[in-house]
Specification:
- The chain is of the alpha/beta class.
- The protein has one domain: Rossmann fold, CATH 3.40.50.970.
- It contains five helices and four strands.
- It has a four-stranded parallel beta sheet, with helices on both faces.
- Strand 3, helix 5 and strand 4 form a beta-alpha-beta unit.
- The chain is globular and about 45 Å long.
Length: about 130
Amino acid sequence: MIGTAAGLSTQGYVAFATSFAVFLTNRAYDMIRMDVCYNNCNVKIVCSHGGLTVGEDGASAQCLEDFAIMRVLPNMKVICPCDYIEAKKATRAIANTYGPFYMRTSRAALPIITKEEDAFVIGKANIFAWRA
């Protein structure tokens, strides 16, 4: 999947590859490193089941180290949207920005904390005041 995405990107396509975080960041690490990152390919890797939120899927589907693994790769940018609205904005932003990206999405039902009018800028954090 990663090799195909890298190949498609060399032909001008914006390639997306998606799976559970544990599979792509751990099992496909070498292909991501060599095929995508060292060649600065326009590949977007979008993974779910990162962090501690996978509960019912068990430990074999859980990936705690995905950010650390992806963050050290050359040219790789890492995105973690906080809700559905921000995930839509992040997907559009990475699709329109050249280079390799890793984006972690959630499987868990999370509350919506952003608004459609909130800005999303790659590389800039938004700070929200939490109100219960």
